[in-house]
Each structure stands twice: as C-alpha cells, then as structure tokens.
Amino acid sequence: MMEKSLSRRSFLKASAVTAGGAAASSMLAACGGSDASADGSKKKILKFGQANAKQGLDMQKSTNSGSSSIADSIFEAPLLWTEDNELVPCLLKEIPTFEADGVTLHCELKEGIKFHDGSTLTADDVKYSFERMFKPETGAKSTYMYDKIKGAKEMLAGTATELEGLTVEDDTHFTFVLTDPMITFVNNLGIDYADIFPKDACEKAGDAWGTGTNVIGTGKYKVVSNDDTTEVVLEKFEDYHDGTPALDEIHFTFIDDLNTKMMSFKNGDIDYCDLDASQLQQYQGDPDVKDLITQYQTLGVQFVNLNLSSEKLQDVRVRKALSLAINRDELIQSIAGGAGIAPSGWLAPQTPGHDDSAPTFEYDPEKAKALLAEAGVSNLELSAKVRANINQKQLVAVQDYWDKIGVKLTVETEDNGVWAQDWADGNLEITALGWFPLYADADNHMYTYFYSENAKAKSSFYNNPEFDDLVSQARIEQDQDKRADLYKQADDILTRQDYATIPLYYPKNQFVAKDYVKNAKVGNLVYHMNDVDIDTTKEDYAG
C-alpha cells in the first residue's frame, strides 16, 4: 500500500526501477516530461482510472463502456448525446430529419474539420466508415443499429461491396436511404458505433486499427502513447473544430482490481474513477472520500428475466405473485447499498415514455400466496442460472423472498461465456441482469429486448401482438410526444398487465473525483471527458 503523502512524481521516480515504471516514465517523457506549461502555469493533467476492457478502441468492434470512455475523446460520430442525455450536432451542421417518405435523410458536414493527422474530414470518410462497418471481415458488433441502410444486409451477407443507401454529393453533403422507416436511426448517429474514421489512415493500419497509436479521429484529444496494457495517454488537439479543449493531457490508467483502484485514488495516483456499488457503503464512511462521491441515475434497469416458454410461468397470476413477493426497498438497501430507485415499470425516469403517475411495484407476500392458490399452484420449483459474481446477490435475495411464499428457486452460477450462450439459446428459466439503453430512447430499451422476434434470443420469449404493434408504431412516429405515449402504453402492458418481466430497481451509479476536477458528470455509464476541466488553483492539485 502506498502512503497517502506519496506524490505522483515520487511514485513514478520510485517505480522507474521496474519494467512497469520504465514504461510509465517513457510515456511521461513522450508527453513533454514537464508538469508546467510554457508560461509557467501548471498543466491540466487528468488521471482517470478504469479496468482494461482489452477490446481496443475501434468501437465498430467493441461494445464495452470502458473502451468508449477512451475512444469518445478521440473519435466522433455525426451527432452527439450529451451528459444531459440531449442529442446535439457534432460533425454535422444540424440534426437531420427524414423526408416525408420516412427513409431519406440528407446530412451536411461542418466545413474544414481536421483529423489528428492533419487531413480534412469529407463525406467520403463517412461513406468509407459505414461501408467498413458492414464488411464481413471487419466483424462489427452493432450493425443491427444501422442495417436498415439500403445495401447493408447485402454487404453483411457478402453479396454486395458498397452501400446503395449512402450516396455522396460533394465533400460536405451525403444522403442516407433506408429500406423502411426507422426514426431512431437519427439517434443512432449520436453514439460511438457511428464513429467516422479517416479512410487513408484506417486502410493503412488494417487490422491494427484501434490499437496502439493507430487511433486517429477528429476528437478533442489525440493519442500520444498507448501500450494497450497499462495506460493510454492523450493530449489536446490544437486544431479541434469546436474550440480549444480544456485539458492538456488525459492519462487513462488501467487498474482492474476495485480495491487497488480506490487506493490509487486515495493516494492521489488517479484523480477520478467509478465507485463500484459493492464499495459504496465502505467509502461513504471514509472521511477522506465521502465528500468526493457523486451519485447519478442511469438509464437502465436491474431485473429478473422470466422465460415465458416455461410451462411453470404461463399463468400471469404466478408471475404477478413472484413480483409481489419481492421487497424492493429492502433489496436496494441490502444488495445495492441504497444506490437505486424502486421501479414502477421498465423504463427509467429519464426516458421518454416513463409513466410518472404509475405507482412503484407493490410488496405484498400475503397477496402473492393468495394468487398462487387461486392459480392452483403449490410447491412451485424454479431454476435460475446467473453469471458468477454478476447479479448473483440479487438472485440469492430473490430466492429468499420467494421461499417465503412457498416457491423454491435453485440458483447456479455460470461462466460469463456459458451464460451468454444459454441466454441467447433460451435455456435460462430464470436469470437476473441489467439492461442499459445507449441513450434516452425506449426503442433501444424495449424493442431490442421484448419485441417478439428479439425476445427469442434473450431467454424471454415474450410475445404480445399489442405490445409489438405499439413499439413498431413508435419506431416510425416522428412526433416525440406521440412516441412517448406509445411507449408508456407498451410499458404498462409489459410490466403491469402481463408481468412478463420483474424489474427490481433503477440503479444509481457513482464516481469519485478530486475537488479540483471540474464538470465531472456521467449521462449514462460511459465516462466522457469532453467537458471535464482542472482547477489548477486548488492546493491539492500537484499537476
């Protein structure tokens, strides 16, 4: 354990005798080796600690939020979801809207945007980036969010080599044409799966793109060094298209162990990191940390997934009884350290379509017993499989609640990979997990999981034509108020009429940041550094 008084400079000097120290020392030198700017003022250097996703920084190939935290400082998409969950222009001059046909979308790039290598962004780079996404050899993981572009599915199948539905008019104008209406396609242009890459640099890097220093974007910060193992160092991009970035450098330090990461924070070796829910109560009682904790609401939900193909779960009275048996307020305190909100539906409060007037799910074990008796069910036995160390505590708590109404739940743990395959194959009668949409829109949350065709691959098998019709209408409705109302109706059917799934709580997450870290804010899971700044006048900021 390092002593709290050990400075960053002293730590690097002491660790230089080790191989890891040598690497850290060389990376510091690569960034200029000085903690002072040319005018003598302290450099603004942010040190962020996170686990190593080991998936690289090419977000066509990764879906990991840790990869996103780094990649989103380097690359940009046509639009941007802010930390206030608002969609704004980024590379585009304005947010485009579909023509009356619902499938034609004209886009215009800002002029003169530079990549980190000095080349200028053009519409050809946009076309290249999307076509790369659909080439089978790329292995992109989130093509389903964009495969309504004409020709996308043909490219994925290997029967076409270019996107029919993405045409370039000139350097700054291009047009998407979809196979059928999908209003949320515009929203999908605001996430990092739609990052735009420089054609020449990306092609030159080949399979190495997204690793090492083969990461060139238009973002506020550019890569100085990256060993893909211990640390990624960024520095501000002086030619950024939307003003001068606030920070001089960002150091993403990889620390996989939760306890080591928090000790690094206490010791001053990092300035900012997430705080796992399992550690919340411990550090709420730590006088050195408690005032530096910030909690925020996510867009997600933690829930018990019910496999509706199971004969034991066919009767809605049984499903409602299972919900009534759970004391959610108690569970939030015991399992999540209080970091959650008792739910009233599937959609989180910040998501359009959340019903503010709906009551939280009732806790009434006596009513649960009566419903089981009414359904003619006794000595019900259910089986659950859950990922080891992930959501396991939730199911153990649920196991106890259900036991009190006469329902026996056996809980087994599985390796992550085995569980994922069982989940996709529909082999899980009961499981628990969290589902977090990428932005504040119910399509990515409800259609993706519970639309009948999608529910088959998530051990749910939910199939209600009325629900399907509502979420399908919402996919093409351009009036946002009408869309929200459609989702409100769909949520009511899903969770308060059919009890097709059992929401446990809307989770809160939390992070810790030193008092000199300004504008630290998380909209939904991913730590973006776009607005973060450093107050160099604070006495505890060493630079």
Description:
Residues 86-455 form the Solute-binding protein family domain. The protein is of the alpha+beta class. It folds into three domains: 1-51 and 220-271 and 515-543, Periplasmic binding protein-like II (D-Maltodextrin-Binding Protein, domain 2, 3-Layer(aba) Sandwich); 55-217, Dipeptide-binding Protein, Domain 1 (Dipeptide-binding Protein, domain 1); 301-507, Roll (Dipeptide-binding Protein, domain 3), CATH 3.10.105. The chain is built from 18 helices and 19 strands. It has helices at 8-15, 19-30, 65-74, 123-134, 152-157, 185-188, 199-205, 258-267, 280-284, 316-324, 328-336, 365-374, 392-403, 416-425, 443-450, 452-455, 465-476, 480-497; strands spanning 45-50, 79-81, 87-89, 104-108, 166-168, 173-177, 221-226, 231-236, 249-254, 272-275, 293-297, 301-306, 340-341, 380-387, 407-414, 430-435, 501-513, 517-518, 533-534. Strands 1, 7, 8, 9, 10, 11, 12, 13, 16 and 17 form a ten-stranded mixed sheet that branches. Strand 14, helix 13 (392-403) and strand 15 (407-414) form a beta-alpha-beta unit.
Properties at a glance:
543 residues; alpha+beta; D-Maltodextrin-Binding Protein, domain 2; Dipeptide-binding Protein, domain 1; Dipeptide-binding Protein, domain 3; 3 domains; ten-stranded mixed β-sheet; three-stranded antiparallel β-sheet; 18 helices; 19 strands; 18% strand; globular; disordered N terminus
Strand and helix layout:
Elements: H1 8-15, H2 19-30, E1 45-50, H3 65-74, E2 79-81, E3 87-89, E4 104-108, H4 123-134, H5 152-157, E5 166-168, E6 173-177, H6 185-188, H7 199-205, E7 221-226, E8 231-236, E9 249-254, H8 258-267, E10 272-275, H9 280-284, E11 293-297, E12 301-306, H10 316-324, H11 328-336, E13 340-341, H12 365-374, E14 380-387, H13 392-403, E15 407-414, H14 416-425, E16 430-435, H15 443-450, H16 452-455, H17 465-476, H18 480-497, E17 501-513, E18 517-518, E19 533-534
Parallel strand pairs: 1-9, 1-10, 14-15
Antiparallel strand pairs: 2-3, 4-6, 5-6, 7-8, 8-9, 10-17, 11-17, 12-16, 12-17, 13-17, 18-19
Helix pairs in contact: 1-2, 10-12, 15-17, 17-18
